[in-house]
Amino acid sequence: MGAALLVREPSPRSYRPALLGTLRTYGEFVRMGFVDTLAYRLRYYTGIVTYFIYVSVYYFIWKAIYEHGTAIGGFDFPQMMTYVAVGWIIRSLYFNNIDQDLATQVSEGTLVMNLIKPVSIQGALIATALGQSAFRLTMLTLPTTLVLFVVFPVRRPASLLQFAAFSASVVLSFFIVAALNFAVGTLAIRLLSILGLLRAKYFLLELLSGLLIPISFFPRIFQQALNFLPFQYISYIPLLIYLGKLSGAAAWKALGTQAFWALALVALGDAMWRWSSRKITVQGG
Amino acid sequence: MSPLIEVRNLAKEFRSFKRREGVLGAVQNLFVREYVTIRAVDGVSFTIQQGEMVGYIGANGAGKSTTLKMLTGILVPTSGSIISNGHVPYRDRRRYTRHIGVVFGQRTQLWWDIAVVESFKLLKEIYEISDVDYRRRLGRFSEILNIGEYLHTPVRKLSLGERMRCDLAASLLHNPPLLFLDEPTIGLDVVAKERIREFLKEVNRAERTTVLLTTHDLSDIEELSRRILIIDKGRLLFDGDLAEMKKRLARYNQVKFFLKDRSQIPRLAEVTSNGLALERVDELTYIMRFDRDEHSSAEVIRTLVNRLEVRDLLIEEEPIEEIVKRIYLSGEVG
């Protein structure tokens, strides 16, 4: 009997087509992310308060700044408030901890338990994060949206079409952030301790994504440089679409560029995983 | 028949950097690093046939877990080769792991905060297990391992023994031809250990599942496997039949005897006069060990009953712990 004959299939391969199988597998990870977050739903009540405080602080800062002018960097005050509020709202959606999770799994040795599964680690982590985001949509994003729209002068989306484009854009933001976090997280395998690096990345991302201030406030040379980087596609670009500052062909082009970055970063994460995973060391004889 | 697992000259080195102590040392560490290379596995070769149940034993840090992690595709060998179930484990990790089951006794593959059955459902999709197979196996495992009542409990609320049984079921849901177990009975009580051993025997018998398990609990080995591999300091010291090892290496027999009463205690000195060592178990229970080549059991017993009033006595073979200990000490077999 040859070795090949010993490979016992768990169930007939023709049971379902490969692509469908893959989708169902990662779909199951999405479900697990959702169910897992359910165990911690209480945490999200404080999340709503935190987001409210963030936006309040920005409200008073921008109010003081706009005392002396009507438009700064192309934004008037109501636009700016909308930018800030919606910025934080979508952050509650695209945000994830894949980088920290991976670093923790490396330091605690639990990564081993994922390696013994016939799945892509990147795929599994991103799918799980997607499930967590889906959960946050109901428990955090929607309540926060409600509160912010009632309390602050936040504008509705420019049009229904703009809102549809904005929604698609936020989904792509999620994938950009997730893939970026995975790629950074893989560094933990070789560097072992990357907490400092992760913190630096966190603040850099808040700034360069346009969450803290619109990219149009940056010096021109920075703006030009940022055009060639994925960061502004996380927050700035979807917000411009929401406000109607990007529409028509420009919006389509922005969505296309976002999709390009999402795919490019997934490929980068995959390459970094391959580069690092041969160096995995696990404690214990 | 070609073997299911073929390991040749396997070696794994870890390079870890030596930390100096103190403030000065810490500053020095930033600039000059000294590395030490540890050879955790050092030229190990063996083959395993389908349907075998093999015990891989060694002290802590002997290299058994490292070998297992190379066999499961987690670690990349420094040198040597592994062909397992037709794959090079680390190279085809995703295709290879589809057909293996793995349990690491000190870790869990179940999701910590949610009900056990959710993890099982995830595994069902990962391994593309059909509904029929899934229900049948889950039903059978629930019965044998008695985990039915925990299926809807979050893993963090389970005891170690309960969790381990669930982990074992998880590793076999896709009915892999090959099962790797790293310390599957560590930290468990006797009843839990027994249940797990029975289950493994059943799986090995019914499905012809090949099982490789590491342990430092030798009673696992005695219960489960006919063949053992002994590793120490990264090198394979013994590969063969457990019975064969006993026959070749058991040099000592022992007589365990129980004195009639305390009045016999002072007379113990008399029986040790011919150079036989005496080991005290408790006040009235003693073990006398003797070399089988130098003394016969009959002779030893005769000495004992002639000089002491003995209530009961028992002839035992040397426990395999003792044999293994001797193998470690001498670093070679025979």
Helix content of chain B: 25-40%
Mean pLDDT across the residues of chain B is: 87
| Shape call of chain A | globular
How far apart are the first and last residues' alpha carbons of chain A, in Å?
35 Å
Give the uncertain stretches of chain B in residue-range form: none
Q: Most extensive interface: pair and counts?
A: A-B, 41 and 57 residues
Tell me the CATH topology of the largest domain in chain B. Rossmann fold
Kindly report how far apart the N and C termini of chain B lie. 30 Å
Instruction: Give the strand order of the largest sheet of chain A, numbering strands 1, 2, ... along the chain.
Output: 1-2
Quickly give the structural class of chain B. Answer: alpha/beta
| Strand composition percent of chain A | under 5%
Order of helices and strands of chain A: HHHEEHHHHHHHHH
CATH architecture of the largest domain in chain B: 3-Layer(aba) Sandwich
Q: How many distinct folded domains of chain A?
A: 1
Description of the structure:
- The complex is a heterodimer of chains A (285) and B (334).
- Chain A is mainly α.
- Chain A has one domain (19-277).
- Chain A has twelve helices and two strands, in the order αααββααααααααα.
- In chain A, a hairpin with a 2-residue loop joins strand 1 (71-72) and strand 2 (75-76).
- The longest helix of chain A has 32 residues, at 160-191.
- Chain A is globular and about 60 Å long.
- The mean pLDDT of chain B is 87.
- Chain B is 36% helix and 29% strand.
- In chain B, a hairpin with a 2-residue loop joins strand 8 and strand 9 (235-241).
- At the A-B interface, helix 1, helix 2 and helix 6 of A face helix 2, helix 3, strand 5 and helix 4 of B.
Offer a concise description of the structure:
The complex is a heterodimer of chains A (285) and B (334). Chain A is mainly α and 285 residues long.
